[in-house]
TrEMBL record:
Pfam families: Ku. Residues 53-181 form the Ku domain. GO terms for biological process: DNA recombination; double-strand break repair via nonhomologous end joining. Gene3D superfamilies: 2.40.290.10. GO terms for molecular function: double-stranded DNA binding. Keywords: DNA damage, DNA recombination, DNA repair, DNA-binding. This is Non-homologous end joining protein Ku. Homodimer. Interacts with LigD. InterPro entries: DNA_bd_Ku70/Ku80, Prok_Ku, SPOC-like_C_dom_sf.
Amino acid sequence: MARALWKGAISFGLVHIPVELHKAVESHDLDLTMLDKRDFSPIGFKRYNKGSGKEVTWDNIVKGYEYSDGEYVVLSDEDLRLANPKATQTIDIMAFVDADSVPLTYYETPYYLSPGRGGDKVYALLRQTLQKAGRIAIATVVIRTRQHLCALVAVGDGIIMNTLRYATEIRSVEDLKLPGDAGITDKELKMALSLVEDMSEKWNPKEYHDTYREDVLKLVEKKVKAGQTHTLTEPTGEAPVPKASNVVDLVALLKQSLGSKGRRASAEETDEEEESAPAPRARRSSAGGASKTRSGTSSSSAKRSSASKPAAKRSTATKTATTRRKAA
């Protein structure tokens, strides 16, 4: 595990649980570099003094709060810690609530919490308490220069701290034009439920990945192979957005969706059957099968030939009898 982002303790009543904070997620965004379009050289940024215009190194940079126009109070990391030592070193549990009572819009960034030195037993106690109670803990913590609201959630053998947004950060939906019942019929709802049931499966996060990122990397490879690394593709205009019809046959669309889902499932089953089909036999076996087929064919021909012989004899006998009658 990488170096801890933060070290402190969870305050749980009179119990203090030493913990370390670690990143739980990492970004895989495309790393695009800004270039000068005239010669395609990378663009760089410099930290400079706005008064003198000269570049400033990191060693000479401090932080300050502008309390008046052009006037600053310098604040060091120690000043920020001493502003509230407890808040900067403690995850202070305020309450325990049902997990379902916190809307998804409040969840922000997850972090792993691991026990600090000597904190294994009290860490396990909090984890098992949350699991048995079926609750999550709502707490506050200061990370860098901001106090965060957060939720402590017991997951497996660990505890995840997920930062939460404050209520003042959540926008209201009152300004959105959201439909009410919209006249949905029972038949439409039943068809939609059938589609949901048909598409339901177990959650497997490994099945999903950023296909757009892969498409862009394929485009990069294609341009490199074609020698078009410095070719700027001009915009061709946005594709027209299809206009929504005022009258939509939802039942027909849902039936079509169910049918396409069924065809995809059938195609997948066919592919699986083809993959599981036995491999062709060796050439020797095939030759044996062919000789058996030829001998079978010869045998059948012989049988047909034998069956035609009595018919030929009867035909000859009939001709002889006719000749005798004419002679008489």
